[in-house]
């Protein structure tokens, strides 16, 4: 028998007043979630098999840590998402080695109180779970996996019993061939360090054993560039591996380290919460389209997102395709989605999109992407991000529309079934 994923979204709720996004040292534009044929799990039920699951569609929105600062503000965003017909919210609860929940491993986030480690007096993850489940929505705990601290800042001493991981383990820092971190946005954890992988898995275990989440969502699950991480532990591991296999390249080795981090999280999930969905926001271009020279997740950031699906260590990927449907362009949303769908290996693709086009709200483009995702039989869409929808409350309402002009989310639907989940 198939497992339902919660009650259908409630739509009688009126749109609440917008809450202002918090002050940002890197905003939603920069801290974005890391910016085919249908399978049996998405096909229509067979009349001869009444227990087959109905088709579903994930309708998600990312809520970054910059979008909320109070309990009422976070609840209001989730209320607006429910009223807009969304059936899943991806709420960020780890930004850079810190916690927006009562972690037993890492300190409370500095943004909540101004002091790293200080208890804010409320638990954003628990609040989000209660509010989302109250609307019959899925709650996916969204964590930055390998971003460690803003590049421009110094990790302070935390108040309370838990210090930031880089305070206790500076050797976990990912560095390039100069021996430093030169990324302009973040300092990063090194996926080539076994203790980093173990720590990341421990963070997942902490959440999965103590919170009733429907999904765990990984962001920043990559390196900051092709020259990382040249830390001593990773280089020694590469040298040892290359002694056994002289043909092993740095790129293949580092892709294996990132994949090993994913696999460590997946192993914990299978052990303690196998029903929970593991997903990741991934680079929107796996490899460049024919004749194009663009950024690429596989060879530039060592993120083998399609390999994770094929290895069955990931349930769903969310390609961050933050461009329009533009036939012939090297960033054509439809062509990029087609590549991800072709390589999904029987797992799910939830098509990611930016709410804005060239910085402006153009719902015709949003609708075009939703229509294209449905035409390609993707398993849903995820919109980046709540902050851009909150800029004008009517933007949420466009997704449901009205009687004369129904929106793409006008009719409630359950999230899609995964036949490999218990």
Structure at a glance:
With 422 residues, the chain is α/β, with parallel strands linked by helices. Helices cover 30% and strands 14% of the residues.
Structural class: alpha/beta
Overall pLDDT score = 90
Main β-sheet description = 9 strands, parallel
What's the helix count?
13
CATH architecture: Alpha-Beta Barrel
Instruction: Determine and state the CATH class.
Output: Alpha Beta
- Overall number of strands: 13
Give a written overview of the molecule.
The chain is an alpha/beta fold and 422 residues long. The protein has a single domain (40-398), classed as Alpha-Beta Barrel (TIM Barrel). It is built from 13 helices and 13 strands.
Keywords:
422 residues; disordered N terminus; 14% strand; two-stranded antiparallel sheet; single chain; globular; TIM Barrel; 9-stranded parallel β-sheet; alpha/beta
SSE blueprint and pairings:
Elements (H helix, E strand, L loop, with lengths): L57 E6 L7 H13 L4 E7 L15 H4 L10 H11 L3 E7 L2 E4 L14 H4 L17 E3 L5 H17 L4 E5 L12 H13 L5 H23 L4 E7 L13 H4 L4 H6 L5 E5 L12 H10 L5 E2 L1 E4 L1 E2 L2 E2 L1 H13 L4 E5 L1 H5 L3 H5 L24
Parallel strand pairs: 1-2, 1-13, 2-3, 3-6, 6-7, 7-8, 8-9, 10-13
Antiparallel strand pairs: 4-5, 11-12
Helix pairs in contact: 1-3, 5-7
């Amino acid at each position: 028998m198939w497992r339902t994923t919660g009650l259908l979204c409630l739509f009688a709720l009126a749109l609440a007043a917008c809450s202002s996004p918090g002050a940002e040292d890197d905003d939603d534009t920069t801290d974005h979630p890391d910016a085919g044929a249908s399978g049996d799990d998405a096909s229509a039920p067979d009349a001869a098999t009444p227990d087959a699951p109905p088709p579903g569609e994930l309708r998600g929105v990312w809520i970054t840590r910059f979008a909320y600062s109070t309990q009422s503000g976070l609840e209001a965003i989730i209320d607006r998402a429910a009223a807009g017909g969304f059936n899943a919210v991806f709420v960020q609860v780890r930004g850079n080695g810190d916690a927006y929940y009562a972690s037993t491993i890492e300190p409370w986030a500095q943004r909540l109180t101004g002091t790293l480690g200080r208890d804010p007096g409320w638990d954003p993850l628990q609040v989000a779970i209660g509010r989302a489940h109250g609307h019959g929505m899925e709650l996916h705990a969204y964590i930055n996996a390998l971003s460690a601290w803003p590049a421009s800042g110094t990790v302070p001493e935390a108040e309370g019993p838990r210090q930031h991981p880089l305070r206790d383990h500076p050797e976990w820092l990912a560095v390039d061939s100069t021996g430093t971190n030169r990324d302009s946005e973040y300092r990063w954890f090194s996926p080539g360090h076994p203790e980093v992988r173990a720590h990341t898995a421990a963070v997942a275990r902490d959440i999965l054993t103590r919170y009733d989440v429907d999904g765990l969502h990984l962001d920043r699950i990559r390196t900051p560039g092709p020259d990382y991480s040249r830390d001593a532990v990773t280089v020694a591991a590469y040298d040892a591996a290359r002694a056994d296999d002289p043909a092993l390249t740095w790129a293949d080795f580092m892709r294996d380290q990132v994949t090993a981090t994913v696999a460590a999280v997946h192993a914990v999930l299978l052990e303690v919460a196998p029903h929970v969905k593991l997903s990741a926001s991934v680079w929107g271009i796996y490899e460049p389209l024919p004749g194009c020279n663009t950024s690429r997740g596989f060879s530039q950031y060592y993120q083998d997102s399609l390999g994770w699906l094929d290895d069955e260590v990931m349930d769903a990927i969310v390609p961050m395709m933050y461009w329009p449907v533009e036939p012939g362009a090297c960033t054509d949303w439809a062509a990029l989605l087609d590549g991800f769908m072709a390589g999904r290996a029987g797992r799910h693709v939830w098509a990611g999109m930016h709410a804005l086009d060239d910085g402006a709200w153009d719902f015709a483009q949003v609708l075009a992407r939703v229509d294209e995702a449905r035409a390609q039989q993707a398993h849903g869409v995820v919109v980046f991000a709540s902050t851009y929808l909150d800029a004008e409350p009517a933007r949420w309402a466009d997704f449901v529309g009205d009687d004369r002009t129904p929106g793409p989310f006008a009719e409630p639907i359950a999230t899609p079934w995964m036949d490999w989940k218990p």
